[in-house]
Amino acid sequence: MRRLAHLLETRQISSTEVVEHYLAEISKQEPVLNAFITVDAEGALAQAKASDRRRREGQALSPWDGIPIAVKDNISTKGLKTTCASRFLANYVPLFDAEVVSRLKDVGLSIIGKTNLDEFAMGSSTEYSAYGVTCNPHDHERVSGGSSGGSAAAVAAGEVPWSLGTDTGGSIRQPASFCGVVGLKPTYGWVSRYGVVALAPSLDHVGPLARTVEDAALLFSLIAGPDPKDATSSDAREFSIPDWDESFVKGLKIGVPEEFFGEGISPEVEGAVRDCLNALEGWGAELVPISLATNEYAIDTYLTLVTAEASSSLARYDGVRYGVRIPAEDSNTMFARSRSAGFGAEVKRRIMLGTYVLSARQYGAYYEQAQKVRTLIRQDVLEAFKQVDVIITPTTPSTAFRIGAKQSPLEMYLSDLFTAMANLCGIPALNVPCGRDSRGLPLGMQIMGGHFQEELLFRVARLVENHVGVEGEVFSDKL
Amino acid sequence: MLIDRQEVMRMARLARLELSDREIDQYQKDLTSFLSSGQKLQQVDVSAVEGTSHAVAMTHELRKDAVGESLPQAEILSAAPEAMDGFFKVPRIVEEQE
Amino acid sequence: MTSYDTVIGLEIHVALMTESKFLCSCKTTFGAPPNSQCCPVCLGLPGTLPLINEKAVEYATKAGLALNCQIHFFSRFDRKNYFYPDLPKAFQITQDAFPLCTDGFLEYYMDEQLVRTAITRIHLEEEAGKLIHSGPTIVDSEYSLVDYNRAGIPLIEIVTAPDIHTPRQARLFLEQLRLLMNYIGVSDTKMEEGSLRCDANISLKPAGSSVLGTKVEIKNLNSFRALEKALEYEERRQSKLLDRGEAIRQESRTWDERAGRTITMRSKGDAPDYRIFPEPDLPPLNLDPAWVSLIKVSVPELPLERLKRLEEEYGLSRYEATFLVNYRDFGDLFFELAEIGLEHKSIVNFLMGDYARLAREHGHMAAKRLAELLQLQAEGRISQNQAKAVLEELFSCRLSAREIVEKKGLEVVGDPAALQPVVAEVLDGNRELAARYKNGETKLLGFFVGQVMRATQGKADPETVSQLLRDELAD
Ligand SMILES: [Mg+2]
Ligand SMILES: [Zn+2]
Question: From residue B32, how far is each of A353, B21, B27, B63 by CA, in Å?
């Protein structure tokens, strides 16, 4: 992106040209890919023109002024439809921008469109969207992952240089891994959730997806920082892009948890991750075998908490103030009919599960128990970080699966097996591509760190990126 | 089945979902399989810990009591499925029947 | 017929008088056009997040301190989930497991007895919107209209222990609580505007028994009268049922003011399952003990303390002191006047009399202005009747009491020499009656005094006149 910014700054290219390029890519690829729910061509071009004017007048808002970005469709954009991939919000137009969107606009980025996702971010394949599945750019018969499938696929396909996603149990990292892009789930609280439609507030995170580690770091620096509108946002703390000095790797302690390797993991995935680990070791890092035994409970803990919080977060969709209304005799029936008509099967399933685990008779056994197990998992992970600087695992046990391959909900839930732990602990975790499998599908590696250790994650990821190489640089023809 | 049909219907009523018979059957299965896979969570000894509701330690900054902008009435009602005289309109309210 | 002990507990919701709402910065003004004081947050639009108003926490803490509660430095917010058209998020942000205040009490007089009611807890929560029904009641309305201006106003919920024993005591408690809230300035407690609302739980048990009976909840008691009447009705209804050997049904009832009875709202068997869990969007509250100490210092003199001071230090009767406590503004004025050095009893008499009537109409008068009037009266320069006239003038013009007295020539005539001719004249005009007086009909003295007063347009000092008359008629 630094290069693109340089082209813009030296007026070798205009923002309008950049946006037109991406809009052309979108028109070309969308009929098959379906990464977008809404493309705001008109708005993006208008923003590009404004940006070009600013640049001419020497008033550019930032070096990134005029660069387009795509935003997951569960992040509120003022005046631009935000559907959460749900029928319920098919016509919902937010009255305000999410904090992250305002921050992007403040530095002059233009919002080119809203990307596809599993309805209300509930899923791991973008198959549960009311607006059709998003295919994997590397194999159109396979899923792009989820729930930020649209955001990952759009970046991987070159429809957009970078994008924002959300991650509640792996929803940035898993699609990033499936599509071969960099994706970060930051430390809980470092990026404001204001305006991001809640799935499970104690687990929801917003983060960047990009082609390169540096772009991801840059995008993260644009959205990170305290927000007084979000009571759970962390204390004053900015993020700036590291200098990419590589000497830090000498003596870096990398935890390799045994539970994330071996049985049940595709040998190609494991092979690629181990290859990178060996490279890191070769540069002077120390590989430390560790155990994260509590990961055994991560999925069930995660599912209990996420369904419970979701059942409450999604209760507001009742057909009174906005969204779908199916007329009925009385209010209760109207609520039930509107919700049933507006929600897809997976959303209803999770609401049912969440209602059950919160109900008076079950609260202690499920929700309360899960919160306590969450504490044990957190203790386990934080204990590990006393011995090591980062933890490296595969992001997913396998590469992108075929559309329609996962039939049972439980099978689908297992997609988050390696990623949910970071959400439960609020620690940062990042996916960096680490090669391709024999079918040409991207492989991904997850790097986790202690709270607020994003800089370290980016540094390690950058080394991995150097090792495996980056594909498809933006505007390489112009450089 | 760990969970009976009545219970599934009670959940649906609580969550304000109108489910078809087929959906009830389906969710009864899903709930049951979810609950049986979640059994191992029940076995974990948590006697020594408190629950975690926020994974990252944070201080709670309270808001000063200052009035800010509200939205104009027309904007507030702009997405309302039904509105009347500046109000949102809803059909007859009956007490919850369980 | 068996006799029963009545057990009553109250739950009171008090709207806090903050400028902005509890969780967003919208205004809290009463009576604004519908849906004109709303924003994305209080409408519960997708993606919005709550932010706690510090003032609401301060007011709740102040209420807790005034009610002798333990203030918890750690407290937490929870979500109470239920669907209702007036609840934008379909959950209420409240405090369940870890409330801000617990274990307090309120003391108040019932007849001559000082009684104490325990406060179980006080917690913070958000108000719902307001519903307007198309028909006379909710059940016979075809539709309802929703106004979210009120949604998100901060409330405290005060829960008492079940240790109130009569409907009248419940009323006295609530009156005292309301007064207390006014004293500490956290709420305007206007029951007619819904800023103070009361629910009551009532059960009966055989006299002396330690086993509690089945409790019935009465919702939405929105006046003191409604509270007392509904509880009296419920006492009768339940005792009749028990006398007949019938069981009391655990249920929620509502007070029908017109019919003068309580009616079933819903039976408790179907009590909603609120699925309460910790609010993930809000970190727990961690109060700084130093901050709480500052609030403690800001708690003013409370009604009971003031009552004791008026009785003990100012020698007022319970009746007088109660007046000055219940009407706090009058109490404040009393202290100002007393400070100036006027005699306590006469201040009270004055304030409770003509002044009260006029002040209600015109608003209060500055203590200094009033003091001058009271001074004149105390010095015997004007009579009580004259004082009343001067007071009326004081409310309608800018002159001082002294200036009014001078201008109108109202000064009392107490000089016997000046009054002697008038007395003579009156007796001269009523010779027959004078003769009857001399024959022992001494009660006629009043008549003669009245005549003299009339002849002097009330300026004569009645004491002097009586003395002169008695002297004259003794001959
Ligand atoms: Mg309450
Ligand atoms: Zn508001």
Answer: 10, 17, 8, 44
pLDDT at A158: 95
Domain segments of chain B as ranges: 5-42
DSSP codes of every residue in A426-438 = T--EEEEEEEE-T
A41-75, pLDDT tens digit by residue? 999 999 999 999 999 999 999 999 999 999 999 99
Active site residue A171: yes
The helix or strand, by DSSP H or E, that contains position A114, with its residue range, turns out to be strand A110-115
Domain assignment of residue A59, given as a range: 2-250+388-478
- Looking at the structure, do residues A315 and A456 belong to the same domain, yes or no? no
Show which of C392, C408, C424 is a domain's final residue.
C408
User: pLDDT per residue over A381-413, tens digit each?
Assistant: 999 999 999 999 999 999 999 999 987 888 888
From first CA to last CA, the distance across chain A in angstroms is: 12
C185 touches chain B (CB under 8 A): no
Ligand 2 ion: nearby residues, β-carbon < 5 Å: C 24, 26, 39, 41-42
Checking if the pLDDT of C267 tops 70, the result is no
With 0-12 CB in 10 A as exposed, 13-18 as middle and 19+ as buried, what is C209? exposed
Question: What stretch of H or E contains C329?
Answer: helix C328-340
Average pLDDT over residues C7-23: 97
Average pLDDT over residues C62-77: 97
Last residue of a domain, one of C261, C277, C295: C295
Contacts of A301 in chain B (CB under 8 A): 41
Range in A138-152, A274-288, C245-259 with the lowest mean pLDDT: C245-259
Asked, for residue A383, whether it belongs to a domain, the answer is no
Residue B98 pLDDT > 50 = no
A386 included as an active-site residue? no
Max avg pLDDT among A361-365, C104-108, C315-319, C385-389: C104-108
**Structural domain tally of chain A?**
2
Q: Which residue of B has its CA nearest to C142?
A: B92
How far, in Å, is the centroid of ligand 2 from the Cα of C50? 10
CB contact under 8 A, A331 and B91: yes
Q: Do A304 and B38 touch (CB under 8 A)?
A: yes
How many domains in chain C? Answer: 3
- A166 and A108 in a common domain: yes
CB distance B76 to C41 below 8 Å:
no
Rounded to two decimals, the pTM is 0.92
Catalytically annotated residue among A125, A163, A171, A415: A171
Residues of B in contact with C18 (CB under 8 A): 65
- Across the interface, do B33 and A93 touch by the CB < 8 Å criterion? no
Dist CA A60 CA C133 (whole Å):
55
- For the cut 50, the answer to whether the pLDDT of residue A479 exceeds it is no
Nearest Cα of chain A lies from the Cα of B44 at a distance, in angstroms, of 7
Residue A275, in any domain of the structure: no
Partner residue facing A373 (CB), from B17, B44, B63 = B44
Residue C142 and residue B92: Cβ atoms within 8 Å?
A: yes
**Mean local confidence (pLDDT), C113-122:** 97
Residues A64 and A94 in one domain: yes
